[in-house]
Amino acid sequence: MSIQEESAQPDGAAAMAGASAPPLSPSDYGLASPPLDLCAACGHCHQLEENHEYLYRDEVDDDLVCHICLQALIRPLDTPCGHTYCQECLTSFLLESDFCPVCRAPLMLQSCRKPSLLVHKLLDKLTVACPFSDHCAVTLARGELEDHIKSR
Ligand SMILES: [Zn+2]
Ligand SMILES: [Zn+2]
Ligand SMILES: [Zn+2]
Ligand SMILES: [Zn+2]
């Protein structure tokens, strides 16, 4: 009797292990639950290497729009050919290409520079809504959002 039970158990365990055998591939895990923290700067969940997300209240001037992501520039970079893109957008674009996405001039990341303070000031002035709109209806300048989120 006891011998039968003992011999049955390893079989049962093996069957159970077999049932749960097909493991999720790493990519399945990645899709299922990306462990994202709330970004302290923009209040949205995104990867560290992704752009901040903002809820713009007004139409953004075309001169301040990145022509890769079509959003207002974030951490802008000027190219030698005179175009401006988000640093994250341009970095990932240039992983696969070596030209400017707008004018197709040859382009390397090392030759790009931060634009003038004026561009940063204009971007900081863009009006955005607080991302925590459930309990906060504030709109404020993009440059003030990080402090606003911190003081929440
Ligand atoms: Zn962010
Ligand atoms: Zn961009
Ligand atoms: Zn260009
Ligand atoms: Zn708020």
UniProtKB/TrEMBL annotation:
Ranges of residues in domain RING-type: 66-104
Record GO biological process: protein polyubiquitination; ubiquitin-dependent protein catabolic process
InterPro entries named in the record: RNF_E3_ubiq-protein_ligase (IPR051438), Znf_RING (IPR001841), Znf_RING/FYVE/PHD (IPR013083), Znf_RING_CS (IPR017907)
Biased composition (Low complexity): 7-21
Keywords from the UniProt entry: Metal-binding, Zinc, Zinc-finger
Annotated GO MF terms: ubiquitin protein ligase activity; zinc ion binding
Pfam families per the UniProt record, alphabetical: zf-C3HC4_3 (PF13920)
Location of region: Disordered: 1-21
Protein name: RING-type domain-containing protein
Organism, as annotated: Zoarces viviparus
Lineage: Eukaryota, Metazoa, Chordata, Craniata, Vertebrata
